[in-house]
């Protein structure tokens, strides 16, 4: 049973066009009847502020010293969570296909890192951020996400504002393909 705030968030996302119903080809190649256009969330400062507040308050007692996210969507959310926690915000990006800290960003063994991400499906990008955090000897205090679409276990306390398990099909088993519904390719996604 979703909480009242989850219902409100889902309604807000629907209203902004962040939750799309249709027939979509995901980056995995699988087909789904739902797609989350996360930048319909991230383009709204008041909505990001509200979402970030829930994440920041959830983890404030864990005393994070820094917020770490993954480029690109996580940067916006991570910055606002960090602003509310009074910490810096840094992000992980790919260099030669490997997730790493660039731009002279630093993490130290004294750091307590809060990892934030917008939408988690396979959990790959969050795991990459956690690997970077640990490789610098920093302690990951938790993972905060807006929408959880899978059942990833990151081995640290994880908080999601919205649970929306993904339902997808191989093209050959897709009921919407069977009904000849035109398919949409919703564009670049990271996971
Ligand atoms: Zn299909």
What's the helix and strand layout?
Layout: H1 4-16, E1 19-25, E2 31-36, H2 39-42, H3 45-59, E3 66-70, H4 73-85, E4 88-95, E5 98-101, E6 112-120, H5 124-135, E7 139-148, E8 158-163, E9 168-169, H6 175-178
Parallel strand pairs: 3-4, 3-6, 6-7, 7-8
Antiparallel strand pairs: 1-2, 2-9, 4-5
Bound molecules: zinc ion.
In short:
This protein is an alpha/beta fold and 191 residues long.
Structure description:
The structure is a single chain. Helix content is 32%, strand content 30%. By secondary structure, it is an alpha/beta fold. It has a domain at 45-165: Rossmann fold, CATH 3.40.50.2020. Strands 5-4-3-6-7-8 form a six-stranded mixed β-sheet, with helices on both faces. A three-stranded antiparallel β-sheet has the order 1-2-9. Helix 3 crosses helix 4. The longest helix has 15 residues, at 45-59. The two termini are 26 Å apart. The structure holds zinc ion. The site of zinc ion (ZN) has 7 residues, from helix 6.
Stretches where pLDDT is under 50 for at least 5 consecutive residues are none
Order of helices and strands: HEEHHEHEEEHEEEH
Distance between the termini: 26 Å
Determine the structural class based on helices, strands and strand pairing: alpha/beta
Q: Enter the CATH topology name of one domain.
A: Rossmann fold
**DSSP summary: helix tally:** 6
What are its keywords?
3-stranded antiparallel β-sheet; 6-stranded mixed β-sheet; 6 helices; about 190 residues; single chain; alpha/beta; binds zinc ion; globular
């Amino acid at each position: 049973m979703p909480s009242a705030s989850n219902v409100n968030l889902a309604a807000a996302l629907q209203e902004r066009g962040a939750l799309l119903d249709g027939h979509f080809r995901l980056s995995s190649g699988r087909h789904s009847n739902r797609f989350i256009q996360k930048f319909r969330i991230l383009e709204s400062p008041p909505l990001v502020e509200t979402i970030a507040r829930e994440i920041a308050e959830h983890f404030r007692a864990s005393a994070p010293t820094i917020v770490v996210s993954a480029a690109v969507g996580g940067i916006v959310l991570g910055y606002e969570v960090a602003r509310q926690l009074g910490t810096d915000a840094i992000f992980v990006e790919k260099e030669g296909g490997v997730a790493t800290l660039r731009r002279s960003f630093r993490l130290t063994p004294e750091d307590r890192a809060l990892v934030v991400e917008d939408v988690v499906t396979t959990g790959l990008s969050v795991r990459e951020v956690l690997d970077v955090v640990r490789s610098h000897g920093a302690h990951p205090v938790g993972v905060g996400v807006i929408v959880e679409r899978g059942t990833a276990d990151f081995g640290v306390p994880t908080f999601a504002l919205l649970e929306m398990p993904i339902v997808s099909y191989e093209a050959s088993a897709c009921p919407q393909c069977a009904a000849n519904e035109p398919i949409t390719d919703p564009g670049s996604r990271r996971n």
